[in-house]
Amino acid sequence: MANKPLYVYIDEGGDFNFTPSGSKVYTITAVITHAPWESLDEISALRHRILTGELHPQLSQTYLENCLCHKFHATEDKQVVRDDFFEIIGNMEYIKAHGIVIKKNLANPSFRKPSRFYSKVASSLLDYIFKRYQYSMLCIFVDNIPVSKQKKVFLKAMKAEINAKQPRKDYAIFFPPSASNPYLQISDYINWAIFRKWERDDKRSYKLIEDLLGKKELDMFSRGDGYEYYQFNKRK
Description:
Elements: E1 6-13, E2 25-33, H1 40-51, H2 61-68, H3 79-90, E3 95-103, H4 114-132, E4 137-142, H5 151-165, E5 170-174, H6 182-200, H7 206-209, E6 218-219
Parallel strand pairs: 1-4, 3-6, 4-5
Antiparallel strand pairs: 1-2, 2-3
Helix pairs in contact: 1-3, 4-5
């Protein structure tokens, strides 16, 4: 589809705390499609049917008012809602996802500077996209919340990598709130499933989205430099 725009929706998981008190892993996932209108009606119908009590009337009004009326969000959503939304995602035909996982205790301190960290992550993510897709324009959406503190650094890294790898291609990068775009909510769910697999060895949700992965998520620092910089205490 060289004559069509390519749409990429990016979500992060974990934190930027490279100590034993932070998350064990950092994940970033891109949902990729030429058809960002697929399943929009189903997603809207699901949310409204839950909000009106047609589905899952046991859900509290507090949850509906504070969470679901704004967006689907895997961390906040109730399990019955997750099950329904994952079912829609799992049946989508025109999306693929690619995830990157970083085990933070294996990341050399030289990579912990945001500019270098995001440059490496952006380079890997874009390499995957450029090798597998053709497009007339690249349109990237990034959830405004996770990268708000590092927005300028992330944006600079993405632009530099695109200009270096695809200098003749048009592109645009946007940072909207995820509530404004269902595909950012899809990327949140898929990234959450990958994060849970690596952070807690919880593969329940991962199994629901595994077939959507263009390839198994990349464990970027699987070998690192052969040194473990700290150990995590076992978590319950």
